[in-house]
Amino acid sequence: MPKKETEQRPEERSPPQIDTPESRFRVEKYGKSRHFAVYDGEKLLAVTVYKKGAEAIRHRLEEYETLLAAKTQIIEQMTDALVTSSRSHSATPQA
Question: What is the pTM of this model?
């Protein structure tokens, strides 16, 4: 008789792989203590008692980083528009 395959319970299944960019912030156990640390690369930013608190800090830092990148892009676009505009005005012959 063929062996029947057993179904895995939902908690045993691995989560689907999501392609997300690697964050520069990470959470790890802090040494041999029960605490958790938030790092920016190799630089220690914070130590928390709970992992959930460290993850909240990491999440907030990632949100700020995304917001800052968006604002920087808007400023660059506005600067480029001003430079282009000023060049077009200076290229027009004056009467």
Answer: 0.62
